[in-house]
Amino acid sequence: MSIFQEDQPGSASALDARLAGYRFERDALGRSAASVFRLEALGLPTLYLKVEEVGPFGELADEALRLRWVKASGLPCPDIIAEDSDGVRNRLLINALSGSDLASASVLTPLGRVELLAAALLDLHRLPIASCPFDHRLEARIAAAKARMQAGIVDETDFDETRLGKSAEALFAELESKRPDGADLVVTHGDACLPNFIASEDGFSGYIDCSRLGVADRYQVIALACRSIAHNFGEALVQPFLDRYGLTAPDPARLDYYQLLDEFF
Question: Please, what's the b/e burial string for 185-218 (b: 16 or more CB within 10 A of its CB; e: otherwise)?
Answer without folding.
Answer: bbbbbbbbbbbbbbbeeeebbbbbbbbbbbbbbb
